[in-house]
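ARCHIVE RECORD
Type: protein–small molecule complex
Small molecule: NAP
Source of inputs: curated submission
Record status: active
Notes field left blank by submitter.
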Amino acid sequence: MKAVLCKTYGPPETLVVEEVSSPIATKGRVVISVKACGVNFPDTLIIQGKYQIKPPMPFSPGGEVAGIIKEVGEGVTHLKVGDKVFSLTGFGGFAEEVEADAKTTLLMPEGLDFITASSVMYTYGTSYHALKNRAELKVGETLLVMGAAGGVGLAAVELGKIMGAKVIAAASTDEKLELCKKYGADEIINYSTENLKDRVKEITDGKGADVVYDPVGGQYSEPAFRSIAWKGRYLVIGFAAGDIPSLPLNLPLLKGASIVGVFWGAFAANEPKESFQNFKELLGFIAQGNLKPHVHAQYSLEQASDALYEMLNRKVMGKVVVVN
Ligand SMILES: NC(=O)c1ccc[n+]([C@@H]2O[C@H](COP(=O)([O-])OP(=O)(O)OC[C@H]3O[C@@H](n4cnc5c(N)ncnc54)[C@H](OP(=O)(O)O)[C@@H]3O)[C@@H](O)[C@H]2O)c1
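STRUCTURE (tokenized, with ligand):
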């Protein structure tokens, strides 16, 4: 089978496509014929050795796939050969076949296509955990989403609306903000051209945002924190801009505000029941037509490094997918 391989840490152009032997389903695991693999920011980090997970070399990036079960390992009872599934693999998805943990592999609901199914777990899983379990976002609260047209950002916009919040989308271009509006944002801020803090204060009549969702980090985190409301919750999601910001600790003191860390992968591993419940609710929203990932572009395995560059160059809106 064909696979995109990372043989040495480096930028996307160091990836190669090669024929490798098919994986085998060991105990508790399955082999999936991959139809589509959603691309996420961690894929750009894992190939550079900058991610928490460092798989043994050579490995394929690609953390979430949709496809068809090819082989079932010993002890797996809820899946059989031929089932259409979607799965959190962590890595290995940029390939024609991948071995996956049966526990993180779910049957695809009726009506979901492979491309959509490969684009829901990371982004919606992360953003729902952040807004529901960590921020405890309430109906009528104001949610500011940074990097709002990105993968997890757009998911946070959609989920914020479903949860009854007023959503302010902030992003770097007007085109991205137009997309956020289509996905339900009530207000938009272009943080490349407008003063983020002043605009949030203006939109909220001086009160500030109750919850700030920040997957970007870098230079905008401090102004975003300064725009937070009394007893606000600031969700630390990630640092797509590259720099991990520091905040003066008088800021949370003055606002009675909380800085709340979000690590969805650890949540799913440590609290599997709660994580499964979140997925059940998310699949319900999808079935009702209330959540639909925006797929910006599709790439072949040979073009996988282009997909990663699109992400590193801030070109992606919503999701990109590698298809077989
Ligand atoms: N904590 C968790 O459990 C968890 C789970 C999943 C992902 N994450 C993290 O969340 C972040 C976003 O992931 P994603 O998959 O949504 O990525 P994405 O689709 O690429 O979105 C990231 C957004 O960040 C902004 N950005 C600013 N500077 C950037 C730069 N130098 N390079 C790339 N993007 C930049 C871009 O928006 P603008 O152009 O509008 O600024 C972009 O849309 C990543 O850091 C990822 O590791 C965390």
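CURATOR ANNOTATION: The first strand starts at residue 2 and ends at 5.
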